[in-house]
Design brief:
about 400 residues; about 15% strand; 6-stranded mixed β-sheet; single chain; alpha/beta; about 35% helix
């Protein structure tokens, strides 16, 4: 018998696990076409471990998986929490840490959700998993599905970075480049799942995406000296990573391991600022921002799917939204690489750009214990990341030239 249930973040309705149940049947009726997901469901555990998880094996007790389910080895999670002394000096922040999730198998935090969704597909006997994505969730699902012996069907906008499309193809997934936006690809993929019986991994639609992403919060708290941070910053588009952070810290509090909820700060880039607009309006839902088109492609979402839950998490944690322009994101890529040795794609470096802005505005104090979640590797989007980097010097073969160049 399952030791957990599903609960709606809006009406509080409680439901038993059902492979066909994705969202609250009541609240989902309120959803408008192409809008954010209504009736998002969270996993509520009846019993949580009273010990810190220090490995993915120990993480199984925190996740809604039967103990006898065999899963093929795929090393998701367990990424380092780094003290980044060079970045600390540059920013004057002695208690700054970086959670480097670029070290996941596909180079992205999205592996966490895809791993759990694939595990649930195995449990439910589903042979095909599908999703829409701007690129990272799709490449993560392609890799996890391949490792677990599942078929994956991915829907991405034609504008997705070529490197992410290459990852998907290399992992043998069926790749569909949609002549439209991410939001349109999302609707098409969901319709296909209903029509063909595929297991739907779509973010904020499958309840296990948030549950999978909560593992990054468990790892941060377990590895941080003293366990408690004052603030955590992350680039936010659909709001599911943000929701996963909130879910993870709340589970730790419920287990009695954590007493202080860190402030969660959602960093929104360029023209993709739907969550920030909803936050500023003190609305229960995010605004819709047509033609979201920032340099951080992973954050380009017109209607955030996890908007209601993400804004709830921001309020509960007494956090907020930070808006940054594309120029600041590009500068953060160079700053992060030159000060911490981490090459991040624009969406990942947005967390650092947000920290610089939050320091300037007073949202964050330099003496606080702060964690930046870096969500994606720079090689995921070399075009977007490369535009910010200094050019190589051209030189001949003579040593005499070098002093003037270096």
């Amino acid at each position: 018998m399952a030791s957990f249930h599903l609960q709606c973040v809006e009406c509080g309705g409680v439901f038993p696990e059902d492979p066909a149940l994705l969202v609250c049947p009541t609240c989902s009726r309120l959803q408008q076409a192409g809008g954010h997901t209504r009736g998002v469901l969270l996993v509520r555990h009846e019993h949580l471990p009273a010990a810190w998880p220090h490995s993915m094996n120990e993480m199984r007790g925190w996740l809604p998986l039967p103990s006898d389910l065999h899963l093929p080895e795929h090393p998701v999670g367990g990424t380092p929490l780094l003290p980044v002394p060079g970045l600390r000096r540059r920013l004057g922040m002695p208690h700054l840490w970086v959670k480097d999730d670029t070290r996941n198998p596909s180079g992205s935090t999205k592996d966490r959700a895809s791993w759990l969704v694939c595990a649930k597909a195995l449990q439910f006997g589903r042979g095909t998993v599908a999703a829409a994505s701007t690129g990272n969730a799709a490449s993560a699902l392609a890799g996890c599905a391949s490792a677990m012996g599942l078929r994956a069907v991915l829907f991405v906008p034609q504008t997705a970075p070529a490197a992410k499309l290459l990852q998907i193809r290399a992992c043998g997934a069926a790749l569909l480049a949609v002549r439209g936006t991410y939001d349109e690809a999302f609707e098409l993929s969901s319709a296909a799942c209903r029509a063909f019986g595929w297991y739907n991994r779509n973010t904020a639609l499958n309840p296990y995406t948030i549950e999978g992403k909560k593992t990054v919060a468990l790892e941060i708290a377990a590895a941080l000296p003293g366990h408690e941070a004052d603030a955590i910053l992350v680039g936010s588009g659909d709001g599911v990573i943000l929701g996963g952070l909130g879910k993870g810290f709340n589970d730790l509090r419920e287990a009695g391991l954590l007493h202080h909820m860190p402030r969660l700060l959602a960093v929104q880039a360029g023209s993709s600022q739907a969550l920030a607009k909803g936050w500023e309006a003190q609305a229960p839902e995010a605004a819709r921002v047509p033609r979201a088109d920032s340099v951080a492609d992973s954050l380009n979402v017109e209607a955030p799917r996890n908007a209601v839950h993400a804004l709830q998490v921001l309020r509960e944690s007494q956090g907020g939204c930070v808006k940054v322009e594309d120029r600041a994101v590009r500068e953060a890529i160079t700053l992060l690489g030159s000060s911490a040795g981490i090459f991040a794609e624009p969406a990942g470096a947005a967390a650092l750009a947000g920290l610089v802005e939050a320091l300037d505005s007073g949202m964050v104090d330099r003496r606080e214990r702060v964690v930046l979640l870096i969500t994606g590797h720079g090689l995921k989007d070399p075009g977007g990341a490369g535009d910010s980097l200094p050019l190589a010097h051209s030189c001949g073969t003579s040593l005499d030239e070098l002093p003037s160049l270096v």
